[in-house]
Amino acid sequence: MRNSQKLYASGGLDNVLKQSLNTAKSDAKSFYYPGFSIISRNRPVGPWLTWAYNLGGAGLKKFAKLKRRWTKPSNRKNKRTFEAAAKESKRNGIQSSRNAAIYDWIAEGY
Q1: CA-CA-CA-CA torsion for 62, 68, 70, 74, nearest 10 degrees?
Q2: Tens-place pLDDT, residues 70-79
Q3: How far, rounded to the nearest angstrom, does the alpha carbon of residue 103 sit from its chain's CA centroid?
Q4: Is 0.90 surpassed by the pTM of this model?
């Protein structure tokens, strides 16, 4: 297949995916706001968007401590602030390596 060709899912799956991503963006913005807008300007939003996509709005609400620690007002975000947020990121039912990776990127300020 040539690079100029695009793959499209049959049966309207492209639209379902677009709608799911738009919902995830909306869920992330409503959950992390105002932190989400700060992240979107200065940091990658991919990790936060994947949480919103995989957990949905209701699932995100279970991580209220993470939200409070991440969006905690401060003149500057520091390592201690990020590590406090990372401690709240552990999820049950996923691989320990994935939990560790998520902890690491939050602790680094992503």
Answers
A1: 180
A2: 766 555 556 7
A3: 12
A4: no
